[in-house]
């Protein structure tokens, strides 16, 4: 097997230098700054700082508001990842059955991913606004007193719906690619053997989609933890009564609104460690059930 070789030592370094610079500036440097600030107590203007060790971490873990944010994050992440992946898989399977206009149908399904998270949140807020929202009449017609700005359960449902809608297109794209990679001969052979559509899906199609599903599980977990900040900020701002305040939104509230810089830095460090541990757990235990071919 022939291996590609570079004639000069510095050429590979120059090729990866832009990515290294971006990672260093926008990831590693902020991470180091967060670690440094997490052991300090600073005034709101950043003029004085005092080394307090792990006191910020102890205060965060003893804060009932942080424990509430952790519980909200678990519920929100599970619902968002579950709904967005399940609906995307259903749409991808149905898209494979379309004969005419398949490409146009897939293009329409991918478009929502281009919408910014804050814009997606505002769209859903306008559609379901209790005063003038066009779709707010649906729950009222069902006898539901609809007001997500005051009802915590309805607020959670609205942000989950907006976040899931935003991510469905991304999941749909990968599920379609995974379905196209499955040999049609396997499905045809199972149909000849008498297996129905539902049995063919659960015994052949879904197991062969395991690598794609595992990849999307990791991506959707990170998405629910970080990328949904704009949606929550636009729709509920963490309310009502902090019922939709996730961990990443609490970092913003404490750091930029309340100017608790040390506490905010400690929370960001804990969130970073949580994501690393969760991703490692998924790769170590969940990936064992994934078969690649």
Description:
The structure is a single chain. β1 (40-42) and β2 (49-51) form a beta hairpin. This protein has a two-stranded antiparallel ribbon with strand order 1-2. The chain is mainly α. It has one domain (47-292): MetI-like fold (Orthogonal Bundle). The chain has helices spanning 10-37, 55-61, 64-95, 102-110, 117-127, 137-141, 152-180, 184-192, 197-208, 210-227, 229-235, 247-257, 261-286, and strands spanning 40-42, 49-51. It is a multi-pass membrane protein. Its main location: membrane. Belongs to the binding-protein-dependent transport system permease family. Residues 70-282 form the ABC transmembrane type-1 domain.
What distance separates the N and C termini? 23 Å
Structural Rg: 23 Å
Largest sheet: 2 strands, antiparallel
Number of strands: 2
Helix count from the secondary structure assignment = 13
User: What structural class should be given to the helix and strand makeup?
Assistant: mainly alpha
CATH topology: MetI-like fold
Indicate the CATH class.
Answer: Mainly Alpha
Q: Could you tell me the strand content as a percent range?
A: under 5%
Low-pLDDT stretches: none
Cα shape: globular
> What portion of residues is helical?
55-70%
What's the helix-strand series? HEEHHHHHHHHHHHH
Average pLDDT: 85
Number of domains in the coordinates? 1
